[in-house]
Amino acid sequence: MKPEGPDYVKKRYNQVHPGGINEWPVVNLSKNRDLFIKEVTLSSISRIKSMTKNRAALIEEIENTLFREKLRIKRNPWAVDPPDESDFLKSVNAKLLEISQDENQSNVDETLDSILEEMVLRYANEIAGNFKKSRFRMARSIVTFGLSRLLNASRARGFWSIFSTKYQLQDKVQITGEVEQLRTMSTKGTIIMVPTHFSNLDSILIGWVISALGLPAFIYGAGLNLFNIKIFAYFMNSLGAYKVDRRKKNLIYLQTLKSYSSLAIQKGCHSLFFPGGTRSRSGNIEQRLKLGLLSTAIEAQRVNYQKGKRDGLEKIFIVPVTINYNFVLEAPDLIKQYLKMKGQERYYVENDEYSSSYKTFAFLFKFFTKGSNISVSIGKCMDVLGNYVNEDGQSFDKHNRLVDTQEYFTKDGHIISHNQQREDEYTRMLSSRIVEEFHIINKVFASHLVAFTAFQIIEKRFPKLDLYNLLRVPEEDQEIEYEDFKIVFEKLLNKIYKLKENGKVNISPNLTGDIDEIIKLGVINVGMFHAKRAIKLTKGGKIVSEDLNLLYYYHNRLKGYNLERHVE
Amino acid sequence: MLNKKIGVIGAGSFGSAVANKLAQKSDVLLYARNPNTIKSIESSRVSSGHSLAQNITITNDLEEIAGKCNTIFPVVPSANFREMMVNLSPFLHPYHTLIHGTKGLDLQPNKDSTSENTISSNNIKTMSEVIREESVVVRVGCMAGPNIASELTANLPAATVIASPFNEVIAEGTRLLRSENFLVYGNSDLKGVELCGVLKNIIAIAAGITSGLNLGNNAKGLLISRGLVEMIYLGQVLGGEISSFIGLAGIGDLVTTASSTSSRNFTCGFKLAEGKKLDQVMLEMDETAEGINTIKIIKQLAVDQGLKPQITEMLFRVLYLDLSAEDAVNYLMRYPGNIDIDFL
Questions:
Q1: What local confidence, expressed as pLDDT, does residue B266 receive?
Q2: What is the fold, at CATH topology level, of the domain defined by A132-441?
Q3: pLDDT band at A169 (very low <50, low <70, confident <90, very high)
Q4: Which phi and psi (to 5°) does residue A484 adopt?
Q5: Taking the domains of chain A in order of start, what are their residue ranges?
Q6: Residues of A in contact with B89 (CB under 8 A)
Q7: Above pLDDT 90, what percent of chain A?
């Protein structure tokens, strides 16, 4: 194994709740699952009603939902969809028809209320997680045991090494950053962890990280498509996931989802959002975040203040996390989808490339046996407005002055008011703060910089070509002389050191030392197990790419630092 | 909340006029930096040529403004804006609302001394961005539009734009300013509206020049329309939306400033047309014309970004490189004609 960086210490963490699993808020939530679903339903209904001003608008919203749901069932059915869906929609349709002929207004309202309740309840039941203590314990040990078996089998030689305990997951996945702060704050307030999202593996990986750090289980929204696969569904359910169906974009569903998240946070459940909403198709660090779920963090904080939870220790803390890979297995598919979307393809169907257990297993196996090291960087805790907090949960502004977070929700420092437009704006502000933090804690690997340098050199050769034509330039025009490459690489490397000095980015330990070694390591590692290599070094001493799309994908990881302007 | 005073920071001409406008509905606390100015205002009740309403109190204490007012209108020249915010910021809280009326830009030199001596749009900040950088205040807005100070105080019919991403800021600005003879429009594109006010000062100087040279009204129409195109072009680079530029704060303010002899920027251009040099012009004027500084900043930005704003470029040469106003006009008239409108 490569020596660990100076910032990384392999360590075992004790559980932050010494009393064990029974003290976890998520356990409480699942004990009272039915009650909680009822609460979610009530809150969603009142949300939806406040958004639809009158009866006609409500009817329109329901009709709209029906229409879209029927379309979804027809166009994009998944294995996980309940079989009685069509029948249910038909029954709602029939009731709506009834209403349209009913003259008695109070009857109409009553039926409408019952329709709405049925729909919301159905959604709430679908969304709700099903956390079970015993299953959690088992799933956790299976994940840890299973993955470390795979690891040992691949690192050492021979069949019997599958029982070796030489390598642990900690050797493979390095956790760096504000680990202690996260552990401390998780015993005080409610944590909302927001990681970058590049690969389907992220959910499982983060789940493992949380448990390796001794934290109680987090609830998280996992794409419903992952529940198509039985084995995934089992783990996800056990690990505290609730389900998010990205195909459903109707108001009723989205409000139910928000209520679920908001109420769970209010009850102190640590939560995990992938704020980009979906895996980064382009390979960029997320530039824009989905605001829907993020807004529930701000809402929950305001509601807690309204309930008089003034103590800094009961606050909601946002913790950005970046997951850094040399190699993303799905990269070829992701970048293809990205280019298609950018190419103005009108209809883009959420597809589901991991539909069979076999493919999934192959994926996991490849990842854990062959994949190069992964590093997970934990960012500093922030309040919901993006101010850093100290160990007591107090917020501090950029100039290190104490800030009372509650005052953001008032106009005079005293009376807390609910102003949706204000909170929407706060959500946008929080999202750009998170993006800023992502860039700061992001860890640059040699492979990222090698890909970035190569693509930039090629791009600058053809200033007149747009991206699509650039990706099609003939091979002989892509070749880069090693010495030319080295000059640009060194220049960019120095810029990155400078950024690091100014606290604008993090670097991996393999980015120091002899420059030829760094380049060599980088070239070996860029997307190392793709059939076609994003980059390689020829015998003649030239840098070439076998797949420019992939090169572009890995290069994108370093966008957003304004490094482009240093390449001529 | 209603018994709280409204704060105004800056007792210059526009600050005093804004204070008077606000005083029609609320008690106002007006901050002046210079203790001597305060004494003279208190005895004469006149501030920068405006007689102040009875319910305006003068102060020299920023802490008092922040303590007594939840809504504050900072109206100080862009050159002093950041310094003022640094001094004010320890007293501000997240519940404060700040609506500024300063039509200028803030330029921060590169902290990183090794990097090349150019500036990029990252170094250029609007006043609302300065407020956000220096304080915890998030509910920020600006007031912009054709608002000549003396006409405001005379209570002639007029309107203004309050821009902010927060509806509650717009509502608050409207509540405080709307009166029989004064309309208030809301706009959520804060940066665009700020840039309108900033960039129109460049064209106002050019308009002063065309007037000073007696080039006639056709030339003025030409200047205003080409000037607007240049404003939009620059405004988009800096992050504003086109729509704001064709509103009250854009074209509305531009037309007013480009034809008003009481505008400082216009006067500055007029004097340049008379053949005076920049130093002399600045000596003759008692308050700074924001446009002079803006031209310098935009010129630097243009060099960095490879932009070609013709009017700004020519004005830069007139101000700083000894080009005569006539030659600048001649140069612009020789420029090959282009497509009239290519941004809509």
A1: 93
A2: Glycerol-3-phosphate (1)-acyltransferase (3.40.1130)
A3: low
A4: -60, -45
A5: 25-127, 132-441, 444-566
A6: 399
A7: 40
Closest CA of chain A from B160, distance in Å: 23
* Structure tokens belonging to residue A427: 């959500």
User: Would the CB atoms of A398 and B133 count as touching at under 8 Å?
Assistant: yes
As a whole number of Å, the CA-based R_g of chain B is 20
| One-letter amino acid for residue B142 of the chain | C
Task: Give the span between the Cα atoms of B272 and B262, in whole angstroms.
Answer: 16
Q: Note whether B5-188 and B192-334 share their fold.
A: no
At A180, phi and psi to the nearest 5?
-65, -40
| Partner-chain residue, chosen from A399, A411, A429, that has the shortest CB–CB distance to B95 | A411
Backbone angles phi, psi at A348, to 5 degrees: -125, 115
Name the residue among A425, A498, A502 with its Cβ closest to that of B166: A425
* CA proximity to A551, closest of A347, A335, A346: A335
A23-A266-A51 Cα angle (round to 5) = 155
**Per-domain residue ranges for chain B?**
5-188, 192-334
> Three-class SS of residue A55?
helix
Question: Are B95 and A408 a contacting pair at CB < 8 A?
Answer: yes
Match 């609320």 to its residue by tokens.
Answer: B26
- The answer to whether residue B271 is catalytic is no
pLDDT band at A1 (very low <50, low <70, confident <90, very high): very low
d(CA B210, CA A218): 68
C-alpha span between A15 and A20 (Å, rounded)? 7
Q: What average pLDDT does this structure show over B127-153? A: 95
Taking CA atoms, B323 is separated from A275, B79, B277, B315, B329, in Å, by: 54, 26, 10, 9, 10
Region B192-334: CATH code: 1.10.1040.10
Q: Does B243 touch chain A (CB under 8 A)?
A: no
Check CB contact of B95 with chain A, cutoff 8 Å: yes
d(CA A253, CA B181): 48
Q: pTM, whole model, 2 decimals?
A: 0.88
Q: Which of A107-116, A353-362, A508-517 has the lowest mean pLDDT?
A: A353-362
pLDDT at residue A429 greater than cutoff 80: yes
The mean per-residue pLDDT over the stretch A76-90 comes to 88
Token pair, residue A98, equals: 């009834």
Q: B125's torsion region: left (phi>0), alpha (psi -120 to 50) or beta?
A: beta
Interface check for B93 against chain A (CB to CB < 8 A): the answer is: yes
Q: Decide which of B248 and A528 is more confident.
A: B248
From chain A, pick out residues whose CB is under 8 angstroms from the CB of B138: 385, 408, 426, 429
When the pLDDT of each residue in chain A is averaged and rounded to a whole number, the result is 83
What is the residue type of A490? E
Report the range of poorest mean pLDDT among A70-74, A293-297, A343-347, B296-300: A343-347
B5-188: CATH topology: Rossmann fold (3.40.50)
ipTM of predicted complex: 0.90
pLDDT of A350 higher than 50: no
